[in-house]
Amino acid sequence: MWELPPLTETLDEIRRHIESGQPAIGAWDGHRLVGSVRGKADGERMEVARLSVAPDMGGRGTGRRLLEAVTGAAPAGVRVVWLFTGGDSVQSLWLYESAGFTRVDERQDDFGIRVTLEKKAI
């Protein structure tokens, strides 16, 4: 089993992303941030990045709503929204495919099988 490195960023890196005007969406339960996602647009394509949901909030639709929100927030001109996940990430693959994403590539990388999925922007 491959171990993925932690997804770490500095506060300044997060601020730069938010200030860039690229989509950055949070899901809140009162004062608690329980999920987040970001988009990284490049021309006609936008990557869905950093989708995360607090472990105790899984299975409540938070991830699906975040995915829908970031797809809907794609800047004008974006025609395709894409993302990748691990081939062993059964729950993630189910979520993405049930949300309309289609597998377009599978390849071996340093962490195992990487699956790329995409769908047309809303």
TrEMBL record:
Keyword check for Nucleus: no
N-acetyltransferase domain span: 1-122
Signal peptide interval: none
Keywords: Acyltransferase, Transferase
Pfam families for this protein: Acetyltransf_10
SUPFAM superfamilies: Acyl-CoA N-acyltransferases (Nat)
Record's keyword annotation contains DNA damage: no
PANTHER family attached to this UniProt entry: AMINOALKYLPHOSPHONATE N-ACETYLTRANSFERASE-RELATED-RELATED
Protein's name in the database: GNAT family N-acetyltransferase
